[in-house]
Specification:
The chain is α+β, with helices and mostly antiparallel strands and 672 residues long. 54% of the residues lie in helices and 8% in strands. Strand 5 and strand 6 form a beta hairpin.
C-alpha cells in the first residue's frame, strides 16, 4: 500500500482499529483501481509527482487572491504537461489517455491542482473530441499538437441561454462555398458560450458546437475546431470575444469562460467530419446515425461517474478515520467518552456511503466496458449498442453525481463543526463534487431522457418487440412470480425489478390516459414528468443493485474480501429499499413485515461492519496528499494538525492587525 500499516506512527485509536483486519486490503485496492496494473500505475504517478516540490503550494489556496490562485494552478498544470512530455520514464506511465485521466481526475489530479486544473478540459474533452469526431487527416493535423501542448483546447457547447437542450443552441456556422469557409456568429447574448473550463484565459483553440447552415438549410448542431487566440501573442482573434464568467461555488481555477463570435471565419476543413461532411460546393453529407456524436459525451459521463466515486472515497475516508479518533459524550454514564464511530447513528451516516463506493464502481465499470464494445462496433458500422450505452451513461451519471454529492455533505456533517473548516478539505470536495450534478447534462434532464427510453421500451415490450438488456425486465410478468417475498440478495433485486416495472407500467398508463383524453403528448408528458423522473431514478438504482450483486457473486475474491463485499452489498440493498419503502409496499413486492425485518437486519449489518470500517477505507488507498485533510490523515493526529494549520493563517502572523487601528480602535475609543 502507498500508506503502509507497519513501522509508521498512528494514534492509538487507529492502531487498535487496524490491528485485527481480517481481509486482504490490497485486493480491494486493486478492485477499485480496476486491476493490479492500474494500482501500480497510480502509485507510480503518486511517487513521481508527490515527491516533486514544484507541486506544493507556497501558501494555502484559500489565502490567495483569485488571480494568484489561477496562476498557481496554471503553473503546476503547465509544469505537469512539460514533465509528461519531456521525461521518457514518465511517458511510459502516462503516455496515453488512461494515465492522463489519472493526472486530471479526482485522485492524483485533485492532489496536484486542488481547486481545478486549467488544462483538464483540454485532456478530458478537447482531445477526445478530436479523436472521436475527427477524420484520420484531422487527427493527424491536430492531435499531436494538442497532446504535446503546442495548442491548448477546450470544449465550447453550453450557452448562457441553453445548456442540456442541444437543439436549442444558437451559435451559427454558415458555410460560404466561394471562400470555402464557415462564418461563426453569436446572434444574441443568449448565444454566448458559457462555462467551458479553460476558455477564459488558458485555451487558444476550442471545439465549438454550432448550428450548421449550408445552402440555406440548417442541419443541426455540429462540432468545429476554432482558433480563439493568436498562437504567438495569445491575444484573442479579431471577431472573437472571450473572457471569464466570474467566481463560482468551487473549481475557481478552471477559468470558466464566455465566448462570442462576430462574423468569424474558419476553413471548411475545421469542421469535424468523421461522421458528417460538408463538401466544397456546400453539399451536406449526413451521418449514418444522428446519435454517433454521442461518443464524446458518453466518455465524459462515464469519467464523471468514476470521479464522483473517487470524491466519495476521499470524503468517507476522512469522516471514518475522524470518527475513530473523535471521542465525545457518554454512551454509558460514567464510562470514558466513546469513539463517535461506536454510535449507531454515526455508523448509519457512513457505512452506507462506503457501500455506495462499491455500487457506483461496479455499475460504472459495466458501462465503461459496454462503451468500449460500442467503440469497436462503431468502427465496423454497427450502432446497435448506442441507445443502451447512451441511456446507461445518462442514468448513472445522474445517480453517481447526486449520490456522491449527498454523501460528501453527510460526511461533512458527520465531522461536526470541524468538518466546516477548509482544512478538513470536505468543503472543497463537496463543491467540486456537486458541480457534476449540473455539468455535462443537468441531472433532472438526464432522468427525463432515461424516462423517455423507459416509456418507449415499455411500449415496444407491449407490442412484443425485443428490448435491450438493461430494460429487458419491462416485459410483462405475472405478479405471482414475486409472491414468495424472498429476502435473499437475489430476492431483493427481484423485488426491485418488479417494483420498478410496476412503477413504469403505472406511469405509462397515466401518460396514455391523458393522451386518450385528447391532450397533446408533449403536454401530457410534462404533467407526468415528476413521476417519470422517479421511474428513471428507480430504474438506475435497480441497475446498480443488480450489478453490485452480480459482481460480488461472480468475480474471483478471497473469502475475507467476499465476506466484506457481501455485507456491503446487503447493506446497500436494504438501505435503499428502506429509504424507498413506499415503492415496494404500494406495488406489493414487499410487505410491511418484510420491511420491518430488513430494518432490523440493517441495524445488525452496521454492527457487523463497524469493526472493519477503518480497514475498508484504508483499502481505498487514498494518499494523504489526495485527502489533503487535517481530519483524515493516515496517522490520525487530528488535533495537532488542526492547530498547526490554524497557525498558518495570515491573521496569525501579526498580533494586532492593521484593521484594528483603521476600524476597531476608533470605534472602541469613540465614547458613543
Amino acid at each position: 500500500m502507498a500508506t503502509p500499516t507497519t513501522n509508521r506512527y498512528c494514534v492509538p485509536d487507529l492502531q487498535k482499529e487496524r490491528a485485527n483486519c481480517n481481509f486482504n486490503q490490497e485486493e480491494i485496492t486493486n478492485l477499485l483501481d480496476d486491476g493490479a496494473d492500474k494500482t501500480f500505475l497510480r502509485r507510480k504517478l503518486e511517487q513521481i509527482f508527490f515527491s516533486d516540490k514544484e507541486f506544493l503550494d507556497p501558501v494555502r489556496p484559500e489565502y490567495m487572491s483569485h488571480e494568484d490562485r489561477y496562476a498557481n494552478e496554471l503553473r503546476k498544470a503547465c509544469y505537469m504537461m512539460r514533465k509528461v512530455n519531456e521525461d521518457d520514464t514518465i511517458q511510459q506511465y502516462v503516455g496515453n489517455m488512461e494515465g492522463m485521466r489519472m493526472l486530471m481526475g479526482a485522485g492524483v489530479g485533485a492532489a496536484l491542482c486542488k481547486d481545478g486544473n486549467p488544462l483538464a478540459v483540454h485532456f478530458v474533452m478537447f482531445l477526445p473530441s478530436l479523436i472521436g469526431q475527427g477524420t484520420l487527416e484531422q487527427q493527424g493535423e491536430w492531435v499531436g499538437r494538442a497532446w504535446s501542448g503546442e495548442i491548448i483546447g477546450t470544449y465550447a457547447q453550453t450557452e448562457i441561454g441553453h445548456g442540456t437542450f442541444l437543439r436549442g443552441l444558437q451559435t451559427t456556422a454558415t458555410y460560404d462555398p466561394e471562400a470555402q469557409e464557415f462564418i461563426l456568429n453569436s446572434p444574441s447574448i443568449t448565444a454566448s458560450k458559457w462555462w467551458p473550463g479553460g476558455l477564459a484565459k488558458t485555451a487558444n483553440y476550442a471545439v465549438v458546437m454550432a448550428q450548421l447552415y449550408t445552402k440555406g438549410i440548417c442541419h443541426g448542431v455540429h462540432g468545429f475546431i476554432v482558433q480563439l487566440r493568436d498562437e504567438d501573442t495569445h491575444k484573442s482573434m479579431p471577431g472573437v470575444i472571450v473572457g471569464e464568467i466570474g467566481p463560482r461555488l468551487g473549481l475557481n481555477t478552471n477559468d470558466n469562460g464566455f465566448l462570442m463570435f462576430k462574423n468569424y471565419r474558419i476553413p471548411r476543413k475545421n469542421m469535424l467530419m468523421k461522421y458528417s461532411q460538408v463538401l466544397e460546393d456546400g453539399t451536406y453529407i449526413k451521418p449514418q446515425n444522428d446519435k454517433l456524436t454521442y461518443g464524446t459525451m458518453v466518455f465524459v459521463r462515464v469519467a464523471i461517474c468514476h470521479d464522483a466515486c473517487k470524491q466519495l472515497q476521499r470524503a468517507v475516508t476522512i469522516a471514518t478515520r475522524y470518527s475513530a479518533v473523535r471521542r465525545q459524550s457518554e454512551l454509558i454514564p460514567g464510562a470514558p467518552e466513546p469513539q463517535i464511530l461506536d454510535y449507531q447513528t454515526q455508523q448509519y451516516k457512513l457505512l452506507p456511503l462506503i457501500a455506495s463506493v462499491f455500487g457506483i464502481h461496479f455499475a460504472s465499470m459495466h458501462v465503461w466496458k459496454t462503451y468500449q464494445q460500442l467503440t469497436e462496433d462503431l468502427e465496423s458500422g454497427s450502432t446497435a449498442l448506442l441507445p443502451e450505452v447512451h441511456i446507461l451513461s445518462c442514468g448513472l451519471k445522474a445517480l453517481s453525481s447526486s449520490d456522491s454529492s449527498f454523501g460528501v455533505e453527510i460526511c461533512r456533517l458527520a465531522c461536526g463543526g470541524h468538518g466546516y473548516l477548509a482544512s478538513s478539505n470536505l468543503p472543497r470536495i463537496y463543491t467540486n463534487t456537486t458541480a457534476a450534478i449540473t455539468y455535462e447534462g443537468e441531472n433532472t434532464v438526464l432522468w427525463l431522457q432515461v424516462a423517455r427510453f423507459l416509456v418507449k421500451s415499455f411500449r415496444e415490450a407491449s407490442q412484443g418487440k425485443p428490448l435491450t438488456k438493461s430494460v429487458s425486465y419491462l416485459v410483462p410478468q405475472p405478479v405471482s412470480a414475486y409472491a414468495k417475498k424472498d429476502l435473499s440478495n437475489a430476492g431483493l433485486v427481484e423485488a426491485f425489478k418488479s417494483a420498478v416495472s410496476s412503477m413504469v407500467s403505472e406511469n405509462y398508463k397515466r401518460l396514455q390516459h391523458h393522451c386518450d383524453e385528447g391532450e397533446r403528448y408533449e403536454l401530457a408528458w410534462n404533467r407526468c414528468s415528476v413521476l417519470l423522473a422517479q421511474c428513471a431514478e428507480a430504474h438506475t438504482r435497480y441497475f446498480v443493485c443488480e450489478q453490485f450483486v452480480q459482481n460480488v457473486e461472480t468475480l474471483e475474491f478471497s473469502d475475507g474480501v467476499r465476506n466484506i463485499l457481501r455485507q456491503l452489498c446487503r447493506l446497500y440493498l436494504i438501505h435503499h429499499i428502506t429509504l424507498n419503502q413506499g415503492l415496494f409496499l404500494r406495488t406489493g413486492t414487499l410487505s410491511s413485515s418484510n420491511i420491518s425485518t430488513l430494518e432490523g437486519e440493517l441495524c445488525e449489518l452496521l454492527g457487523l461492519l463497524r469493526p472493519n470500517a477503518v480497514n475498508i477505507v484504508d483499502a481505498f488507498d487514498a494518499h494523504d496528499r489526495v485527502l489533503d485533510s487535517t481530519l483524515g490523515c493516515w496517522d490520525g493526529d487530528v488535533y495537532q494538525r488542526m492547530f498547526d494549520e490554524a497557525l498558518k493563517s495570515p491573521l496569525n502572523q501579526i498580533d494586532v492587525p492593521e484593521a484594528y487601528h483603521k476600524y476597531l480602535r476608533p470605534l472602541m475609543k469613540s465614547n458613543l
